[in-house]
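Format notes (please read before filing issues)

Several people have asked whether sequences and structure tokens are stored in separate files. They are not. Every record keeps both together, in the order shown below: the sequence lines, then the token lines. Line labels are part of the format and must not be stripped during preprocessing.
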Amino acid sequence: MGPEHPGDLDSHPRGTGGCSVHPPGESLRLPDLASRSLRGSVIAASDEFFAEKENLIKPGPATHQPHTFGHKGQVYDGWETRRRRDAGGSLPGPGANDWVIVRLGAPGVVHAVVVDTAFFRGNFPQSCSVEACFVAGYPDAAALAGASWREIVPRSPLTGDAPHVFEVPRSRRYSHVRLRIYPDGGVARLRVHGQVVPDPSLLAGMTFDLAALENGGDVLSCSDQFYSVPRNAISPGLSRVMGEGWETRRRRAGGNEWLKISLTQRAVVSVAEIDTSGYIGNAPGAVRLRGYDLRTAAGADDSAWFEMLPLTALLPDTVHKFRLPVIGEAAGELAGERDQPVTSVWLEVFPDGGVARVRLHGSLTDDGLAEARRRWARTAPLTYGQAFVACRFRMRAAMSPASLVRLV
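Then the structure lines:
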């Protein structure tokens, strides 16, 4: 798993996914569901003669070193197919294309797709399209060949050495995407930004990490992300180096740094894990956790947040685990009285520094599980008949009254 690219809150370095802003819209603030950092994978491709298909979903921006040649030519950090030829060696027809299938790291509703042709200047595709499908379980390439694919990005022109952002009408969840390039060429990165929709059957009756990106948690906001973005702290796996956690700049004034995390759904958090692994000379001195319950909160200001973990010292390069809530235990309350549900958690670090991972283990409340099930049902893929009716409805809505009379 690789880190998201560092940057200020309102910068989005070319070619990267992450929680930074990328004009023109808010969609690119959302997680990259295809990224290797979320454990996405590339299942199959029609061709990868010049550059491997797995490069498409690497977390960082594409790199390039000119005049580095292998047996098949210039080495590219991306996916590149051979030049297509029709019979007799002529150029391919207008419909000729290469394709690649990516399994998303978690099922989700897609909001935007980025097709980045970084450093492909004389060998980029003329155009591309993107399809998506949802298939339960772990289908292989043969099973996906017969899946019900839906076009989410119509065939669109591409230019060389540039990121291309395509907004996607959002409604249904998908598990796989298929990128087609016409007729051939190279693409550096494929980003599929969206919202994770976890399968409630894997959550019911379970204790799990409520903050984890793969379980539908996400970062709402943060005070600083100078060295690395906070979404790293809720990503799968362990942080191997400092760049794979969340680290702020050094404070030169009073106050402290913080981030706010939305949970999978309404839940009770039992154990908090604050991991400073790898942060030896730059770990925070202390941490505090506060909770917010959207269902019962009287307002949205700071007074609506209640303490879950009081100000507690942290050590460098250490995995800290805290049974929550500590305040209730100190007051001698009964365990059942201490289980206060939350929908969001506010992590504060004092005064600044880096955190490798934040894990918030707990279980969904009954209403939280019910909402997870409703969301799973709302985002279910359309059947063929439903898709036909929806298409017909859109066509009728776009027609004039006179045309509707003829249609009837």
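For reference, the curators noted about this record: DSSP finds six helices and 21 strands in the chain. Residues 52 and 79 are 5 Å apart (CA to CA).
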